[in-house]
TrEMBL record:
Source organism per UniProt: Elliptochloris bilobata
Lineage: Eukaryota, Viridiplantae, Chlorophyta, core chlorophytes, Trebouxiophyceae
Keywords: Membrane, Transmembrane, Transmembrane helix
Membrane-spanning ranges: 24-40
GO biological process: lipid metabolic process
Protein name: Phospholipid:diacylglycerol acyltransferase
Molecular-function GO term, any one: O-acyltransferase activity
InterPro entries registered for this protein in UniProt: AB_hydrolase_fold (IPR029058), LACT/PDAT_acylTrfase (IPR003386)
Amino acid sequence: MESTACQTDDSLLKGGHRKKKPSAFWWWALAVLVLSLFLSKRKMVQRRLEPLMEPMVERLQSMNINVTQLELPHGVRLPAVFRQENPPRPGRKLRKRGLGPKHPVIIVPGFVTSGLELWHGVACAIKYFRQRIWGSMGMTQSLIGDKDCWLQHMALDSATGLDPEGVALRATEGLFGVDYFFPGYFVWAKLIEALADLGYDANNIIGETYDWRLAVPNMERRDGYFTRLKVRVETTHQLHGEKVVVVSHSWGDNVFRAFMRWAAAGDPEWVERHVAAYVNIAGPTLGVPKAITALLSGETRDTAELGLIGAYLSDNFVPRNQRVKLFRTWGSGIGMLPAGGTAAWGNATWAPDDTPDMAARNLTYGVMLTEVRVDERAQAHGKAVQPAAEKGPDAGLAESVRSWVQHLLDRNDTDVDLVIKKHDVREAVDILVEDGGARFKEQVQTWGAVYEENAKSCDVDPEDPATWHVDPLRCPLPHAPSLQLFCLYGVGKPTERAYQYLNLQTEELLEKSEDADREQPQNEVFWKIDLGATDKKVEDAPLDRGVRASDGDGTVPLLSLGALCARHWREPRLNPSGMRVVTREFPHEPFQNLIELRGGPKSADHVDILGNAGGGPKSADHVDILGNAGVLEDIGLIAAGHGAELQDRFASRVRDIAAAINV
Ligand SMILES: *[C@@H]1O[C@H](CO)[C@@H](O)[C@H](O)[C@H]1NC(C)=O
Ligand SMILES: *[C@@H]1O[C@H](CO)[C@@H](O)[C@H](O)[C@H]1NC(C)=O
Ligand SMILES: *[C@@H]1O[C@H](CO)[C@@H](O)[C@H](O)[C@H]1NC(C)=O
Ligand SMILES: *[C@@H]1O[C@H](CO)[C@@H](O)[C@H](O)[C@H]1NC(C)=O
């Protein structure tokens, strides 16, 4: 780290703004850039210049040129982006304060964002030995080349949730598995950089990757992940003489909490002795509604994590029925089903996070799934053509139903009747389980935390996987009085919360499929999000193409991100040893900055390359938050042993929501 270059940097900084002329090449390159700005259309410029600019600005900064002051020959000003201050390096800032590494940092990554490599495959995939089948640019090519082969390797065995015959994908190991999803798309790279700036290196930042497709119990059963993580934490603790700080992202939170239960079952003091702080970034503590849609109809909207899936599993490549089949083999998807039941997610008349607009219109998030179905057997003639809901709050319903009914009428099926059913979270999961068949139901009972029955006992039985991953609203945190628990997450981005669904399974089809094998999803997927349903009149909770959004980070609703941290984990019932719990909310302000395309520095007065003064580049999106300078600084402080400085910071109404959740 401490090279001569660094010393030069420091002396230059101390010596004030000593100017150094950039070489002719850089003048030339800048001139070309500026010229093309004037000559091309804005969007085109943006797209073309992005890859060029980052290295260029970095190069200028490494030459210690204050880019804010640069002027081109002949009085031409630099594009605004070059004139902003150097992006802050949170690690350096802490270092300047005299802080340094204290606790070793263990990274537990989330769903989808880490690489999977092929170790064993069938003939079509032999050429990909030890290459990333997931999490690389190459995967796009292999997908286009041979979709069926790729799908065959990405799926797990639908009966066991383990490797299919002859196929084995394994997580890319260590920091390589977590830093970039593919070149240019950072996941943990910014945190690793910030910690390195603070003085960390590969000895005390550890990426504990895992196969994110597996159900929690199968992570231990197949890969011994819990055992490995336990030994890793113990060894790290021993080597450095300090307890560890564990940083998880997204689904990694559910994994790590299950791990703590498991570790504490063998030794109730284990967590207290080994873990100084647990940093839960964007954890879906109570699950996500979109796990239902992914498993029921294979539909995933373009939001961060599952958006990554969307990028590779778009309708064109992989039909919905194949996606449903694939997703249902991934036990982790089942683990992400909403937990906490109706107390957390609401019922037919009420939900803890209902907005004022919704209450005024008699709408509730508690209806997680509105089912719209045409009953072809009903005798009431033509009733459907004038759906009752047309005048009510579900105005969007009318439009989509009408076109569908028209379709039936065109087929001369005039005996149609419209059925609208409202389902709360429990009924929505029942629909999913019913659709998935007996074996799937058993897996949901074992691997998910959706059924309150599972929470009857909160004791962990190392032999019984159903006791590992439990309803966090009913089972307490481990005994660890000196551990500090931090929840860091983004707010202010519309996030899927409830759905309107078309049930395309008519009575006739139902009869036909009754004796058919329901273990495997049928070729047909009978459920489909009602894309025709849009109602923007409810301003704070609009229904957009069948999806009603709530506050959140774009992937996980606020309710699941924050309610436990804001209240329940602070109460003796769930936190018997009284560990310190801190919530830090980061309001989402999309990036305006082409250097820091995602995440981004904190400066509020930022101006982008096109001269637009924006809302500030503070992305707090589900994945991008891992590049948010405020988050990186918080983690640096915690790792440096100064977590006690961090106090609660609320930006949403999460405390009201938490107050409304009563068990
Ligand atoms: C760069 O120049 C600007 C404007 O003259 C000045 O405000 C800023 O402090 C300078 N930054 C550094 C790091 O020298
Ligand atoms: C829904 O939950 C609320 C709050 O717990 C309760 O007051 C209400 O009676 C419930 N409604 C139904 C239909 O269960
Ligand atoms: C609100 O919805 C409930 C249940 O669907 C219904 O009983 C009630 O009449 C509705 N109230 C209004 C004002 O529409
Ligand atoms: C429906 O009925 C109309 C009139 O009875 C007829 O002209 C038309 O061909 C029928 N359409 C179909 C698809 O059978």
